[in-house]
Automatic annotation (TrEMBL):
This protein's UniProt keywords: Cytoplasm
Protein name: PF03932 family protein CutC
Species annotation: Streptococcus loxodontisalivarius
Cytoplasm as UniProt keyword: yes
SUPFAM superfamilies with a match to the protein in the record: CutC-like (SSF110395)
Main location: cytoplasm
One protein family per Pfam: CutC
Highest taxon of the lineage: Bacteria
Keyword Cytoplasm included in the entry's annotation: yes
Length: 209
């Protein structure tokens, strides 16, 4: 089992148990679903967490709101990716969709060269893709080289335990080809049931410890 802590600021990092938390996602503006943290935050968090043996994943998202980005925003994301890689981040979180809530393949492919083969995680924007299209989207992300997908199982704020049947179906379909990471309302008391009912072994949240 892998537990990944979602950190909005450096203060939270000093409370983490490195025996329990194996990864940290660094972001800002968590109330908006997370945006790219500052250069200084990435630098100091990477230094501190790497000393503790905890890997880091950096959010690349220039603003809250939709996951449809224009050319200027894509250039900002490209620059942020380069800086995150320069600061020895271990992975990157990206989420790019079209107006129709499909994967924006052109935008993703535009950013791929800047990632320098760092492991890529697709943001919970995945939940906004129509359920009947999610298996095809999963296949596309694998082809693009993504190693993980953050997901809740639904685009609304319903209890994650209510999504277990679909999450299990997706995990069975993934068949170990890509790591699924449960997010959104994941707390310590839900992990055992989620793990048992879905088969998913990775969990993400700001309340994990």
């Amino acid at each position: 089992m892998i537990k990944e802590f979602c950190a909005e600021n450096l203060t939270q990092l000093f409370q983490l148990d490195s025996q329990s938390i194996k990864r940290v996602e660094l972001c800002d503006n968590l109330a908006k679903g997370g945006t790219t943290p500052s250069y200084g935050t990435i630098k100091e968090a990477n230094r501190y967490l790497h000393e503790k043996g905890i890997s880091t994943t950096v959010m690349i998202r220039p603003r809250g709101g939709s996951f449809v980005y224009n050319d200027i925003e894509l250039r900002v994301m490209e620059e942020d990716i380069l800086r995150a890689a320069e600061l020895e981040s271990d992975a990157l979180v990206l989420g790019l969709l079209t107006e129709e809530n499909e994967l924006d393949l052109d935008a993703i492919e535009q950013l791929l060269p800047a990632t320098q083969d760092l492991p890529l995680v697709f943001h919970r924007a995945f939940d906004q893709i129509a359920q009947e299209e999610q298996k095809a989207a999963l296949d596309q992300l694998i082809e693009l080289g993504f190693s993980r997908i953050l997901l809740h199982g639904s685009a609304d704020d319903r209890e994650i335990l209510d999504n277990m049947d679909w999450l299990k179906e997706l995990n069975d379909y993934a068949a170990g080809r890509i790591e699924l990471v449960l997010a959104g309302g994941v707390t310590e008391d839900k992990i055992a049931k989620l793990q048992e009912k879905t088969g998913i072994q990775s969990f993400h949240g700001s309340q994990l410890k």
